[in-house]
Amino acid sequence: MPLPSQDNSVAKDYCAPVVGLVGGIGSGKSALAGWISQNAPVEVIDGDQLGHQALQDPTLARTVLDRFPQASQDTNQTDQPTVDRKALAQVVFGNDHKSQAARNDLEAIVHPFIHRRLKDLIDEHHTRDDCEAILVDAAVMFEAGWNQLCNHVVFVDAPQALRLERVGTTRNWNQADYLARQSSQWPLEKKQDSADSSVNNSGSLEESGGRLLTLIHSLRGKASASCS
């Protein structure tokens, strides 16, 4: 599929729209965002990376380990608290009440940090004259209320069989791993209904990326709203 024609020049008074990406685990949000950033002057903010940064913050790490001591990673090389993310995941992902309560506690600790970093990064890139748009790739965008930082939210769609295949290949997850994590998020139908638009990502990245670029170009005309 040929890429849509585009003028990558950005006016000095341009204010980049913020586009959120949501979808099921394995829908290919990160791959799609990466493709976009390689083919257009678009900045990508990765919510997973911000979550990792939160757990590496010494103050937050201590708070997390006070609540989840079983997630402490033994190390003799540093005095800094270190969170074992795999051990933490075993505690917070699941459908049972105990897992849900643990997940709520974890989110209460790390989500304010992620929200602040998201806002800081958006503010940093918002008025850059070389930035056409800002993509925010965050799995729990709606659940955490981060969609309020976006001008437009896109649901990245892909069939479950393909999503399972992708996480098996890229993350070495089995179906139980996938379901445990997916169940911690909003149902996909609710996410799709809450999004402003959707992009099918079951084909090639060139196809889905071309469609997303077309959407981004259409939002450039509404840039003034993103400056408020």
Explain what the structure shows.
This protein is of the alpha/beta class and 228 residues long. The protein has one domain: P-loop containing nucleotide triphosphate hydrolases (Rossmann fold). 50% of the residues lie in helices and 11% in strands. It contains ten helices and five strands. It has helices at 29-39, 47-56, 58-67, 85-92, 97-126, 141-144, 160-170, 175-182, 188-194, 205-219; strands spanning 18-23, 42-46, 133-137, 152-157, 197-200. The protein has a five-stranded parallel sheet, with helices on both faces. Helix 2 crosses helix 5. The radius of gyration is 19 Å and the shape is globular.
Quick overview of this protein structure:
The protein has 228 residues and is an alpha/beta fold.
Structural class by helix and strand composition: alpha/beta
Query: Which percent band covers the strand fraction?
Result: 5-15%
* Distance N to C terminus: 36 Å
Helix content: 40-55%
Strand/helix succession: EHEHHHHEHEHHHEH
Side by side, the strands of the main sheet go: 2-3-1-4-5
Shape: globular
State the fourth-level CATH superfamily. Answer: P-loop containing nucleotide triphosphate hydrolases
* Rg (CA only): 19 Å
Number of H/I helices: 10
- Summed over residues and divided by their number, the pLDDT gives a mean of 89
CATH class: Alpha Beta
Main sheet attributes: strand count, strand direction, barrel closure: 5 strands, parallel
